[in-house]
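Section 3.1 - Work completed
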Amino acid sequence: MPLTSLKFKPGINREITSYSNEGGYFDCEKVRFYTPFPEKIGGWVKHSSNTYVGVARALHNYVALDGSNYMGVGTHLKYYIEESGVFTDITPIRKTSTNSVTFAATNGSSSITVTDSSHGAVQGDFVTFAGAASLGGLIIANVLNQEYEIDSITDANSFVITAKDTSGSTVTANGSDSGNGGSGGDASYQINVGLNTTVGGNGWGAGGFSGVNSDLSTFGWGEAANTGTTATVRLWTHDNFGEDLLINPRDGGVFYWDKSDGLTSRAVALSSESGASDVPTIGRQVMVSDIDRHIIVFGANTLGTTVQDPLLIRFGSQESLVDFTPTATNTAGDLRLSSGSEFIQAVETKQQILVFTDRSLFSMRFIGPPFTFGLQELSKNITIMSSKSAVAVDESVLWMGKENFYIFNGGKAQQLPCTVRDKVFLDFNFDQGDKVCAGVNSQWSEVWWFYPSASSNENDKYVIFNYANQTWYYGTLSRTAWHDRGVRQYPIAAGSQYLYDHENGNDDDGSAMTASVESSQMDIGDGFQFNFIRQLIPDITFEGSTSEENPTVTFTLQARNGPGSAYATNSSGASTRTASTPVEQFTDIVDVRLRGRAFNMKLESTNQGVSWKLGTPRIDIRPDGRR
């Protein structure tokens, strides 16, 4: 009997049943469909052994005039500039106190009470002390004069830290420290830290670590947080203005880092720069328009007030860093979005800026004087999952909405047909939807979305759309931010306090990676008769493998007798057998004995250094009777 070729449609389809998807693939893990055939995705390695503090949710890469290759990294606790694998903390300073800070210790305790009037700090904030004198015992000046993370807030004038030496080891006070009020010192407070998890509800516990409102202002014991129904995670936006950097924590201030001041300098409030005129002091996103060189702040405070308008867009004068006062002789101004209740995200394409509210999509274009920019509503009744869920691919923008995917490619927003929609959204933690981040992997014509599954509070899964061949696939991976290759050789993603170079090698940072693809069920005729599979001829290439041993994958043929039967032998005989066979680089033919009304095929690799691409296997299958 002639051999039967196993030809499958590319991509994964979970919108129909496995039987209905005959001739297609039904499940996968760490596999892509760049060609019509499945192949294992590239691996990743740590960009460096250095770590950052917090969970990174924003990456921005650019090159300065002197060739310095910078990566801006925004976490829920700090903001860094990474260069050559080294992270430099440039988190802005919120407040400084001079000669007014005192310290108190208790014998046998490592807890230090710090007193500073109206400190404005919240639990988890970072503060650096200087000029403090020894408390007389083990709590010497070097112990006090360094950066600390605040353990707890006592009241508006005092807080508690844990004493440590310069190596980070805990220091316990002795009797000479007991009751010593210490000497006056200086304190530099970094901007209040943000949330790492979206918190629902009002009042105590709803703000940042039980002490910060959604506008980053603090509230006292017993007071209600003005968070509405939720307090959301800390997200950053950033863009370079020439070789300098603009950064903005969502619903926080707009800050500026001057490259000429060097990596030893911190970012400062843009409104504090020389010549500043009506610079926005709060915003939801900052952007520099590439074509016309305007600084744009979305969701800004209204002109002349400190009140944030979540639908207001303000822009400075062309080529100006700090001039936001509209006059007859400059191009500064503002626009207000006419639909929706809040601004969510802006994405720049080659010809326009697409602006999302919670229910509408607008086009923002440079039109020149006297209006500078014009707004046009493109679509209503759309949704968007998060302020990081939309990305541009040439002139198209793709994004994850709430239970749908969308695309805009010049006309109006349309739902993007998705063959894995139920697989994604039926296993989704919508309470943490703000954490969704999208990224382009241009080398493979892919858009990745990382999202939290229903059982997780953090991104632990991904879904991919290949825009070249219109296919979908998915897998499991914990990443919180992504930046495409370009200035750097590899795409870079953030996870577990490290940056990772993706598409680098075949493994999970030096460990073996499990990759698999599984077909839907197949049968002969209408599937009413039993079939017998005698032989399998694999068609697979291991090109690109780095394994020191012969690269190997496992082919598994699984048979069953009906849609409700499992792929395993049971006492009732309702289902039949599974045949798993290792296939190496030079395997020509595999002998199997498998009987059932329908069967499927699964390929899996679990060894280190293995790369593979599946072609068109063939099987010897023939009608048979049931024994």
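Second construct:
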Amino acid sequence: MADLSTIHAGKILIVDDQQANIHVLRTMLQRAGYQNVKWTMDPSAVCGLHLENGFDLILLDLLMPAMDGFQVLDALRRTDMALPSVLVITAQPSHKLRAMQAGANDFISKPFDHAEVLTRIHYMLEVRRLQQETRDHSARLEQTVLARTAELRRSEEMFRELAANIPEALWIRDEEQQTIQYANPAWKKLSGIDAAAGDPLEKIFKTIHHDDLLWLTHDRRKSRDGHADNEYRVVHADESERWVHARSFPITNPAGNSPWIVEIIEDITQRREAQQQLVHLARHDALTSLANRTLLYDSLRDALVRADAENLVVSVLLIDIDFFKIVNDSLGHAMGDALLCEFAARLTGCVRPGDTVGRLGGDEFAVIVLTPADNFNASKVAARIGKALQKPFTLGGQDVLVTTSIGVASYPVDTREFETLLHYADTAMYEAKVAGRKSFRCYNPAMKERAMRKSDIQSALRLALDRGEFVLHYQPKMRVDGGQLSSVEALLRWNRPEYGLVAPGDFVPALEEMGLIVPVGTWVVETACRQIRKWQKAGLGDIRIAVNVSPKQVREELFIAHVAEAIRNNRIDPALLEFEITETTLMAPGESTDVALRSLKALGITISIDDFGTGYSNLAYLKRFQVDALKIDMGFIHDITTNADSATIAVAIINMAHNLRLKVIAEGVETQEQLEFLREHGCDEAQGFFFSRALPEAELSQRYRQAIGIEAEHDAVLFAHAEAGHA
């Protein structure tokens, strides 16, 4: 193996018509320790530069305006100098095979990964150095053999001693007589057979792999002077195979007749295996050994061609592990990797040997299935895969349950376009996630319309915050026992131009998916604090505002700092700010959630658990984080007076919360009967359409002004304002 300093001393030429690309590659190489790096933006100068410098490696961009990389490769082949190793750079997958056929040694795709580029360059220079050493060694050996052949006329013993002690296999043949003249011990070790002087050449030719013998014989017939340089396979007597590099050259026949041919054979099996391993790594996922994105897409293109020729249907199944990040974070990355490997193995076992299974990255996998057009049913395949993957995975002695979201699109049923087929499968997978995960969806045209609407909403949302299109509406919370206003809940609304107010369910999930919930959530907190101060200045007193906070906000590194800054800038009492969080936020793994919730309590902010009773909260967490209140989910309140189970659950939550000295708020109250039930069982506060819908700030302020100074029992009536039953 060549030492690092030798590799770093290799002569490298960068050929690219883009100065920025040259700068990136040159800087990367110099930082990695390469000392002899030159560059040119003129592809026509490559041959001259190579003749002048004798480069070991050329990094060649294929697509250049005046002279492309293929022309450069052709020009290099026509020079008298030894060809350098060539690593082509291309963003076109279709050019890769053509470049290799044109003489390139390897390729990298744009945009390229720095670590991959440096690894490829290191390997190619190392292989070139080893090849150079081999050539030098072989050349020296050839010279030695030629010199010793003359001496053998005087001393055959000297030759035999030399040939018997070199590590390479060596044999001599008489082309005219078609006989073996000599074979050294290394040949016997390589082939496992004895070859004595006078044996027919067929004895040695039988050791050459049958797939290589025909082309090898044809290639050598073209060389009339006996010189040859080939790589082929030798089959040992024990049937094992070895790759060899063989060099042949003529020597003087002691009898003075036709020259004899000497063949020196080097075992290069390890080098070939290393090359094959690199090729495998370039087209397979390093973790799971499945096809990677490159191989998967190539396989899909081949499948589409075959489908047209044989009247088949190609189905693409995109498979995503539901909530993999939670599993990965809670169990650790090592266990997450183990899950991906087990998942890949089970997925492979779900399909036929001819189907293609690949990993696109992260926790996203893909399957390519070909079926007869008259027996096409991709949904059966998806259902079988989904069911098989639901069985527990045993990792580190514990069972881990996962589910999958699967999207299916088929060619030519849904589309005849490669990119569109993948897009449709992705759209179908998204629909499966929206439907609650743990399911599959096959693409249909209605999904395209929903995807377009989603894209339209996402495009508008990216500008909504900067354009000031978000507003807060406020829904009153009333004391159940007396009817007075206790606080309000701030609810986000999007006043989209030309559309009006957009329902939260139509845009809040998009904010979460796009990662915009954090900046928008920061704006909500700041706006709520500003509103508290505004009401104080207007003489309405201290009105507490509850704000919904997403799990992503809680885990955000600067969340606490932004909250503290909003409180400080608006000079409000932190007790007037209440954060409503979900049970999943409370249960989220990781130290960041613990730190954030404790910091909020330290600031003096009230914390309540929203939609309580619908999740899997551990009651110990309620005390651990000093939660102040629980909100009974409206699903229980809706039929609290007509469904015994809902009533029992609501009463149990109220009693449990009071025993833990927590306040209880009921949301979704719509009738007098529901309010009376809650009052009878000691619920503290309530909100819902029976009292008021969420109101714009100006309307809420006006109603609150009307309520000031009036008997408390009339407050609920003032706020109701014909809201009961309003959707």
